[in-house]
Write a structure and sequence with these properties.
This protein has 10 helices and 12 strands. By secondary structure, it is α/β, with parallel strands linked by helices. A hairpin with a 2-residue loop joins strand 10 and strand 11. It is globular and about 55 Å long.
C-alpha cells in the first residue's frame, strides 16, 4: 500500500467489505461507469482499494467480450512506449550494479533528492548513455537552483524532470516550468481528474498512477483531458504486483512515457501479465487485463 496516501491492508479490507453491498445491487458489469461512481462515493480516499474494484471490472468485461482491455480505448498496441527502470539513491557501486540489472530497459529513471545529485548522474553516465528521466520527489528547495540543475541535466540526455519542488510551491513551479529547457511532470501535485485544471501552466505534464486515481476508468478520462490541455503524460506505478502493472500497461499505448517497473522491484509477485519486449512493457493480447496467477497468497 502506498503509505503517503494513508491506506493499509486493514483500510482496504474495510473498504472492500463496504463496497460489496454496493456491488451486490448490480447484475451487469458493463454498467462500469455507474458502478464505479457509486463505489467512489462510499468514502473519500481509498484510491488503491477503489482501483482494485476498477481493475477487476475491466478484467471481467474484457473476458466476457473476449477482448484485451486496450481495445476499450482503441489503443494501438504498437504505440506502447519504452518503459523506465528505476535507479534509487545509493552508493556509487550499487548504482552501477542497478544500471546493469536494468540492462533490458532502454530508459532509466533516476531518483534525486538535492544531495549529491550531480555525482549520482555522473556515476550513471560513466556506465550508460541511455536516456534518463529524473524524479526529485519534491526534494529541491529553491527554484533558482532547480533551474540551474535542469539546465545542467538538459545537456545529459534527460527526457523530463518529475516533481522538482514541494507540491505547495505552485507559483515557483509555474516560474520554473516557464523557463525550464526540460518538461516538468507533476506526480505528488496531481492525483485525480479534478486536479488537472490547476496543472495547466504550472507543469508541462502529469504522472498518472492507477493507485492514486482509482483505476483504469478515471485514468482513461485523465488521458483525454490532459491531451485537451496539451499536457504530456507519463503512466507510472507504485511498488505493485504484475496484476496492477498489467492493468496500467493497457493504457500505456495512449501516453508519452511509461514507468511500469513496479513488479520488477518486488520479490512476492503473484501474477504474470506483461512481457518486457524490446524495452517496452507490452499489454497482453489475452482477454481482460490478461494476467495469470503464478503464486499463492
Ligand atoms: Mg514520482
Amino acid at each position: 500500500m502506498p503509505p503517503y496516501l494513508g491506506e493499509s491492508h486493514e483500510s482496504v479490507i474495510r473498504f472492500l467489505t463496504k463496497a460489496e453491498k454496493i456491488l451486490a445491487l448490480y447484475k451487469d458489469p458493463f454498467e462500469k461507469g455507474i458502478i464505479l461512481q457509486q463505489v467512489d462515493a462510499i468514502e473519500k480516499g481509498n484510491t488503491a482499494a477503489k482501483a482494485a474494484i476498477d481493475i477487476a471490472l475491466h478484467d471481467l468485461t474484457g473476458k466476457l467480450q473476449n477482448k484485451p482491455c486496450y481495445t476499450f480505448w482503441n489503443a494501438d498496441r504498437s504505440k506502447t512506449p519504452f518503459s523506465f527502470f528505476t535507479i534509487g539513491m545509493d552508493s556509487e557501486e550499487m548504482i552501477r550494479q542497478k544500471v546493469t540489472e536494468g540492462e533490458q530497459f532502454h530508459f532509466l529513471k533516476i531518483k534525486l533528492s538535492g544531495e549529491n545529485d550531480k555525482s549520482i548522474i555522473e556515476t550513471i553516465r560513466s556506465v550508460s548513455n541511455k536516456p534518463i528521466a529524473v524524479d526529485v520527489n519534491q526534494g529541491w528547495k529553491d527554484k533558482h537552483q532547480a533551474l540551474d540543475m535542469m539546465e545542467w541535466l538538459a545537456e545529459k540526455n534527460t527526457l523530463f524532470v518529475e516533481q522538482p519542488l514541494a507540491k505547495e510551491k505552485v507559483d515557483d513551479m509555474a516560474w520554473l516550468t516557464e523557463r525550464s529547457p526540460l518538461p516538468t511532470i507533476a506526480d505528488e501535485s496531481v492525483q485525480r481528474l479534478t486536479d488537472l485544471e490547476k496543472i495547466k501552466n504550472v507543469f508541462s505534464g502529469i504522472n498518472i498512477k492507477l493507485m492514486k486515481c482509482t483505476g483504469m476508468h478515471e485514468a482513461s478520462k485523465m488521458i483525454l483531458r490532459a491531451r485537451e490541455l496539451d499536457l504530456k503524460i507519463l503512466i507510472g506505478c507504485m511498488s505493485e504486483t504484475s496484476c496492477a502493472i498489467a492493468a496500467a500497461s493497457h493504457l500505456s499505448p495512449l501516453v508519452d512515457w511509461a514507468d511500469l517497473d513496479g513488479a520488477e522491484l518486488i520479490k512476492n509477485d503473484l501474477f504474470r501479465g506483461t512481457a518486457l519486449i524490446n524495452g517496452k512493457m507490452m499489454p497482453s493480447d489475452l482477454p481482460g487485463i490478461g494476467v495469470e496467477k503464478i503464486g499463492k497468497n
